[in-house]
Each structure stands twice: as C-alpha cells, then as structure tokens.
C-alpha cells in the first residue's frame, strides 16, 4: 500500500514519534522499488515536490492541525523527519544497475585523484634561462634540422675536406650514403652551427640569433659524455662588429646567468669557423673563484683553479661569409661573432649533479627533485 499522510488526532510525544517512524519506514520501502530512471524521478517528486509532495503535506496537515501546546514538539518532529526523508531521497538510486554504487552514489569524503604537476627538465630549464638572457639583448631564436648534410655541418663552416671531425669516431652518419657526393651525405648534426649558415641564407644582415637544439656525437655514454646532448649557439653579424662587442656581450650574459660578481676571462683557442677564436672562462660560481669550498674541501668542478670553461667563441671567419656572400654577407663589408656552449654541462654544474646520464634516464625520482 502506498503511503498516505494520516491526519493526527493524538499529538502526544509517543504518537508523533510513531507517525514519524511509519513515514520513514514507508519511504525506505519505496526506495527499494525504484527500478528505472523514470521510477527514480517519480519517487523524488512524490516525496519532495514543493507542491503537494509528501513532505509538504506533512508540514501542512500535521503542523497546522496541532493544538497550541503541541506546536513546538510537532515542529521539531517534522523538521527531523524532513532531514531524514531528504537523506533517503538523495541516496535513492535505480536498483540492479551495476554502476549504482560508483556513478550514482558519490562519496564526497573519498580523497580525489591526484594529478601531479609537471615541471621543466633541468636541461630544458637551463636552456630557457640562457635563451632568455639573449632575447633580452634583442636576439631572436632560430632552429634547424637535426639530420643535416655534410655541406651545412662541415663544408660551409670552413672544415677542410680531410678534417678529423668527419671521422666516424666523432660523427654519426646515416647509412648507405657512399654513392652520394660528400657534401650531400646525411648525418646527425654534431653542433648547432649549421643553423648559422641556414639563417644567413634566408636573412640578409644585420642578424642576431641564438640557436638552441640537440646535437649528436659518436661518444659512448658515461658520467660526462652522451651520444645526444644540447647546445646553444649564438651569432651576431653587422657592419663594424668587433672583438670588443663579443667580449662585452658575453661578459654581460655570464653575469646575468651566474651572478653579477662573476669575472670573465678569454683564452686563445681554435675553431675552423672563427678567427680569432677563444674559450671563455668564468670565475667558479661554486667556490666563488677561490678553488676551495672550505679549509679541507677542494672544489672539484673547477679542479681547484677557480675558473670554469663555459663556451667557445670568436669572430666569424671571412671564409664562412664567402658561402653566403650573395645574400649580403660580403666579408669586406660585414663582420660578426659567434659563440656556442654545452647546455648539459652547465646544468650539471648549476645543479651539482655528478652524472650526466641521470638527465637522460627518465627516472622520475631523480627529476622530481627539480620540480
Ligand atoms: Zn670552484
């Protein structure tokens, strides 16, 4: 028998309690009869509808019919009853459906699914920092292919035909290229410098670019070598660019990267594509240039010299400009400087990591430390 709201004649505590209990029992019994979504809607309407729902009827019939002295207690009973019925209706669901307990009864007290936030990889983060310093100086970012031709990777950068860097001990060549002329043979670029030529072919001077990217060499992986690593290369070409501009730019960049109190120091070096060439050293940012981290703690990263080599640089060799002369790079009219650095090594130093392989093994426990 479907529940109907009885008129009360007895307003004693016991009678109120019994009528409330009967009502709750009837509601509970009805929840078990809900077999479809339509049933569920009808059940909810029957009990909760503002107009003529059972709770509304109880409110009207019981409360309004109560004698003055029983009004307060009747009110309390009706309120408690409303709360309980609302809970039952809220919890009601279509019985027999498999997903009932999962989808229809949401337990708000259960902890949610945690999605851990990602973070930049320490190498990429270092790369972004370096690129950011040069962007503030007005440099734009250029990129190029990782699979390159011998022409862009070596020839146009003034590597003579028999230069040892082409040896397979250093360079990873794509297989089955022997039938092609040497300049067309494909390889994995060994530095980001080919993008200098590619950019100069597309854009006339003046030019100021930084080139971040991955490069490959035929090195077995160990604590300080990897067959894949990251470089950032820079190139500035204009009229009247001098070695003074090179020194000033790099000194500023090193102070922006490692702190305003680092000192820079250039030592003569050799690269096929720059002349003159130099290696840039900065005062060790770990020991502050003292070579010692404490009374009995020699500084390993700088080998106790107080200096760390950070990059190679130099004035662009006029022979390189000859390859892009037709695009406005007449070596008699323009000059420029270039520099290149290994990002991974700087990230090792910066974060005090002693094994390069840790950066590339993808172990989340290691990488999480930089999040
Ligand atoms: Zn040091």
What's this entry about, in short?
Helix content is 35%, strand content 19%. It is α+β, with helices and mostly antiparallel strands and 371 residues long. The two termini are 64 Å apart.
Q: Radius of gyration, rounded?
A: 39 Å
Number of helices: 12
Binned strand content: 15-25%
Order of helices and strands: HHHHHHEEHEHEEHEEEEEHEHH
Would you mind describing this structure in some detail?
The protein is an alpha+beta fold and 371 residues long. Helix 2 packs antiparallel against helix 4 and helix 6 crosses helix 11. It is elongated and about 115 Å long. The two termini are 64 Å apart.
Keywords:
single chain, 371 residues, alpha+beta, seven-stranded mixed beta sheet, two-stranded antiparallel ribbon, 11 strands, 19% strand, binds zinc ion
Please specify the SSE layout and strand pairing.
Layout: H1 13-31, H2 37-48, H3 54-65, H4 71-91, H5 100-104, H6 122-136, E1 140-141, E2 147-149, H7 150-153, E3 186-188, H8 194-202, E4 207-216, E5 228-238, H9 243-258, E6 264-271, E7 274-283, E8 292-294, E9 297-298, E10 307-316, H10 318-322, E11 335-342, H11 343-351, H12 364-367
Parallel strand pairs: 1-4
Antiparallel strand pairs: 2-3, 4-5, 5-11, 6-7, 7-10, 8-9, 10-11
Helix pairs in contact: 1-4, 2-4, 3-4, 6-11
């Amino acid at each position: 028998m479907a529940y109907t709201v009885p008129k009360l004649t007895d307003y004693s505590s016991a009678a109120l309690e019994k009528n409330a209990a009967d009502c709750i029992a009837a509601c509970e019994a009805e929840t078990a009869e809900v077999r479809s979504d339509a049933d569920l809607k009808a059940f909810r309407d029957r009990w909760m509808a503002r107009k003529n729902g059972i709770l509304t009827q109880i409110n009207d019939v019981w409360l309004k019919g109560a004698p003055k002295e029983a009004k307060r207690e009747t009110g309390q009973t009706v309120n408690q009853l409303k709360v309980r019925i609302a809970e039952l209706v809220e919890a009601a669901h279509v019985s027999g459906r498999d997903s009932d307990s999962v989808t229809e009864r949401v337990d708000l007290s259960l902890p949610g699914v945690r999605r851990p936030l990602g973070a930049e990889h320490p190498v990429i983060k270092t790369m972004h920092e370096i690129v950011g310093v040069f962007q503030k100086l007005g440099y734009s970012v250029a990129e190029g292919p990782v699979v390159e031709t011998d022409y862009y990777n070596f020839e146009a950068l003034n590597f003579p035909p028999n230069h040892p860097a082409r040896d397979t001990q250093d360079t990873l060549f794509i297989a089955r290229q022997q039938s092609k002329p040497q300049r067309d043979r494909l390889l994995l670029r060994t530095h980001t410098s080919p993008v200098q030529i590619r950019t100069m072919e597309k854009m006339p001077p003046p030019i100021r670019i930084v080139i971040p990217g991955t490069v490959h060499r035929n090195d077995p992986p160990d604590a300080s070598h990897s067959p894949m690593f990251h470089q950032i290369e820079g190139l500035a070409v204009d009229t009247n660019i001098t070695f003074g501009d090179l020194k000033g730019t790099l000194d500023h960049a090193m102070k922006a990267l490692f702190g305003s109190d680092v000192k820079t120091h250039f030592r003569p070096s050799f690269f096929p594509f720059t002349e003159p060439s130099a290696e840039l050293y900065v005062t060790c940012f770990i020991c502050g240039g003292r070579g010692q981290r404490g009374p009995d703690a020699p500084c390993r990263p700088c080998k106790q010299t107080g200096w760390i080599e950070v990059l190679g640089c130099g004035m662009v060799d006029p022979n390189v400009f000859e390859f892009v002369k037709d695009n406005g790079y007449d070596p008699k009219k323009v000059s420029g400087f270039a520099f290149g650095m290994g990002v991974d090594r700087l990230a090792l130093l910066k974060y005090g990591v002693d094994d390069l392989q840790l950066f590339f093994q993808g172990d989340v426990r290691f990488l999480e430390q930089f999040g």
